[in-house]
């Protein structure tokens, strides 16, 4: 594992920060089961719910090279935030569901995408009890979670998503094949190009795709910026709305930029999500 991967991976539970206090007006439900899979661990999600009900929903997917990671982790730059990033999103008026999915050591693709679709189906089923509006869903993911969020946004039939916010997500598994991609697919992408294509968001771009915000560090050493550039190009060719933002000096996990620069990325991503679901919202930190 590289030094950067050591920095961005979710910390061990022995030293991980404890959950930050929840601000007034936000309700949290942790560890809610959404699926039981025979022979596997139960899959769970955490919910951050704003006051008022009928809130649009952010479905958040964590990173970790499909191999590790935790559903409540938005990356290294948010781990010391209080209130945390999901509380901030909820305070702006959007519910958040942070979703488990099977890792590549547990199952190969498309199990991960199947899990995310199952979570969305569960949220639709229980939306009345939860007070969420599943006609206005934004998929938001970082790194491996950005890959899955892209696939969900491009392949979900019902409900159709309102938008996707993708931070440095792999988009073409043939662009930079390596151990994480091979573990995800169960084969090297060059040995099974058909499966690599099936698992690549660039292969699923289409005219009716929801609006995409792709944010990527120009100096990303783990998932090169060419992934987001390729997906943006495919979406534009298809006639779908896409906004590509390349961040100067940023490596993977937003390493290499200032706290103020990262705050601006988070705020602009939240503003994009709010606009996509027709909410003005409050994006102050």
TrEMBL record:
Domain BD-FAE-like stretches: 45-235
What the entry lists under InterPro entries is as follows: AB_hydrolase_fold, BD-FAE-like_dom, GDXG_lipolytic_enzyme
In alphabetical order, the GO MF annotations are:
hydrolase activity
Q: Which domain of life is it from?
A: Bacteria
Could you tell me which Pfam families the record lists for this protein? BD-FAE
**Looking at the keywords, is Hydrolase present?**
yes
Keywords from the UniProt entry = Hydrolase
Protein's name in the database:
Alpha/beta hydrolase fold domain-containing protein
Record organism: Actinomadura yumaensis
Lineage at the top is:
Bacteria, Bacillati, Actinomycetota, Actinomycetes, Streptosporangiales
